[in-house]
Amino acid sequence: MNTKILLGEDQIPRQWYNIIPDMPGPLAPVINPQTLKPIAPDDMLAIFPMALIEQEMSPNRWIDIPDEVREIYKLWRPSPLYRAHRLEKALGTPAKIYYKYEGVSPAGSHKPNSAIPQAWYNKQAGIRRLATETGAGQWGSSLALACSLFGLECTVYMVKISCTQKPYRRSMMQLWGAQVIPSPSEFTNAGRAILAHDPECLGSLGIAISEAVEDAATHADTNYALGSVLNHVCLHQTVIGQEAREQMKIAGDYPDVVIACCGGGSNFAGLAFPFIADRAAGKNVRCLAVEPASCPTLTKGVYAFDYGDTAKMAPISMMYTLGHDFMPPGIHAGGLRYHGESPLVSQLHHAGQIEAKAYKQNACFEGALLFARSEGIVPAPESSHAVRAAIDEAVLAKEEGKERTILFGLSGHGQLDMGAYDAYLSGNLEDYEYPEQKIREALERLPKVDL
Ligand SMILES: *Cc1c(COP(=O)(O)O)cnc(C)c1O
């Protein structure tokens, strides 16, 4: 019985899988935040290169991965698929548990799968610098890595509270040559407006996105890069699920359930979309997205048009949202704090094609500890949501006395997240459930899009 199922470099996918032609219905239009009318592709050219704008709405099911991108993927891809024999034993479950591990990338998560092509397409378009935001620092470090590999400059607006909570992620970005600016900052109108109102503001992803978008929109040589949510990011991440499908074949198994944590939705999309394509072809596979109870976008949010950022500068999308001024509680250590959700993942959830579940953070860290003590790898706090859900599926299989094949995404390692683990181990992690009242209030502030 194998523990680790590996593929060769020549088995890195040659194409990304684009789910758009296989979606349950047409995509909702993306809306211009100023005019409240659908955006024309050219409107996006101020911040994105044409190649990525085209991928954003491409009708082609398969999109070639550029050779230069595949060459860099070889630094860590294909990533391993593990059979969690020791976790199964610890749980005494008849279920088989597999996990696809993305923590082997240089940045320690799945995010370079999209950072690398995004930097490459921008370089091809003659762009000199990329601006972005980062929360926990995973995306910022991934883009810093990608920019350093292609000789681009990189400016990262990092949520202020994360700069203090995750100082080593900041160091990592600087090590790869990026400029890191705590957000809200004095560098942008969006940042200055927030600080004038609240000088102590600890920042949020929504605010940092506003700053990075403004930076890109006001500098001709600078574009913006987003690490999740957008269709082209989900597209790039499908290397995960394509490899996992091949590896499951080698293992002689097929999953009954595919599980991944969900912030903006990109690692979930990356792992699950190739299996959702199988569903359309008649396979019986469930896909489960797992999110924190403190930022319960899919499980408690509404499916509506909303702004992608707090300052209402980023485009409006149809998605599950908690409201663009959502501010996650400072006590939340588990990541996955974005107010919205990938429009593709949202539409699939709305159509009943995928399931969603929310967990409180102590339950996730408890699962992560059991995982680390049986499988060895320390999960990223984000990934611990998927770990917890996989454990619960395995325990359910035991209670029901049924076999079950579980595949989950271990999106990253948590070796730079010891602050969060310390808080858990010392009993200082508070559980928090986002109140319904706040969601109802946020609904009042959604944009009134009238098509
Ligand atoms: C950023 C991140 C996530 C959440 O982002 P998605 O776009 O929802 O995948 C999950 N896991 C890790 C390790 C991350 O760095």
TrEMBL record:
One of its GO terms (molecular function) is L-serine hydro-lyase (adding indole, L-tryptophan-forming) activity. The keyword Membrane does not apply. Its cofactor is pyridoxal 5'-phosphate. The keyword Phosphoprotein does not apply. SUPFAM superfamilies: Tryptophan synthase beta subunit-like PLP-dependent enzymes (SSF53686). Keywords: Amino-acid biosynthesis, Aromatic amino acid biosynthesis, Lyase, Pyridoxal phosphate, Tryptophan biosynthesis. Pfam families: PALP (PF00291). Coiled coil: none annotated. It is an enzyme of class 4 (lyase). Pathway: Amino-acid biosynthesis; L-tryptophan biosynthesis; L-tryptophan from chorismate: step 5/5. Its EC number is 4.2.1.20. One of its GO terms (cellular component) is cytoplasm. The modification N6-(pyridoxal phosphate)lysine is found at residue 111. InterPro entries: Trp_synth_b-like (IPR006316), Trp_synth_b_CS (IPR006653), Trp_synth_beta (IPR006654), Trp_synth_beta/beta-like (IPR023026), TrpB-like_PALP (IPR001926), TrpB-like_PALP_sf (IPR036052). Residues 75-412 form the Tryptophan synthase beta chain-like PALP domain. It catalyses: (1S,2R)-1-C-(indol-3-yl)glycerol 3-phosphate + L-serine = D-glyceraldehyde 3-phosphate + L-tryptophan + H2O. Belongs to the TrpB family. HAMAP family: Trp_synth_beta. Tetramer of two alpha and two beta chains. The beta subunit is responsible for the synthesis of L-tryptophan from indole and L-serine. This is Tryptophan synthase beta chain. It comes from Oryzomonas rubra.
